[in-house]
């Protein structure tokens, strides 16, 4: 697994002090305090302070990991010049945002996955939340692309991936907002998605009385109920 460094626009000393202050505040926070919980369907939204070129202005949909206990997500607002038909020439024509391949993250960039909405469970896919599913593998993706009932979809190359403590530290350091995921946002116009969500994160941060606690998920092997809470240690 390749490790990545998240850069925040603040001096190193200030960053260290900020993280220490957050740790002290979390230890002092009562158990019933307001929490941020990634065991529920979530977006990671890059904050304005994050200037890592791999993730700047990115919106990441957290998905079931195929390599627990690693955590996984797919960037959903970074369409590439490459089109779906370049990889899957035999499938039906797609229009609008679904036409493009999306750059899902820097890990395993040659691997392709698909996020899509379907009225019922698909044997080749894992449910993310509600009627949103994710599938991997060329044959499985090609079959989904040929299904005329499925119109909301994103084909994604690569993924983002973290260790539990790594992601927790990044959130605490101010690199990410954690915002509840909604299907309409996953499959809407990606152009203004980050700017809309980061404003919501700014407001949420301003209203917060204390830094959030986090619970992070990993996938169970049955492919349907993948959510499990892991308390930060």
Q: Write the element-wise H/E pattern from the N-terminal end onward.
A: HEEEEEHEEEEHEHEHHE
Output the CATH homologous superfamily.
VC0467-like
Give the CATH architecture. 3-Layer(aba) Sandwich
The N- to C-terminal Cα distance equals 22 Å
Share of helical residues: 10-25%
CATH topology-level fold name: VC0467-like
Uncertain segments: 1-5, 15-36, 217-233
Beta content comes to 25-35%
Q: Total domains, how many?
A: 1
Shape designation: globular
Q: Kindly name the structural category.
A: alpha+beta
For the biggest sheet, the summary is: 10 strands, mixed
> Which whole number gives the mean pLDDT?
77
The tally of helices reads 6
Computed CA radius of gyration, to the nearest angstrom: 18 Å
Tally of extended strands? Answer: 12
CATH class: Alpha Beta
How does this structure look, described?
The protein is an alpha+beta fold and 233 residues long. The chain has helices at residues 12-28, 84-87, 138-146, 164-172, 183-186, 193-207, and strands spanning 36-37, 42-46, 59-63, 71-75, 79-83, 100-103, 107-117, 126-129, 132-136, 153-162, 176-180, 214-215. The chain contains six helices and twelve strands. Strands 2, 3, 4, 5, 6, 7, 8, 9, 10 and 11 form a ten-stranded mixed sheet that branches. The protein has a two-stranded parallel sheet with strand order 1-12. Strand 3 (59-63) and strand 4 (71-75) form a beta hairpin. The protein is globular, with a radius of gyration of 18 Å.
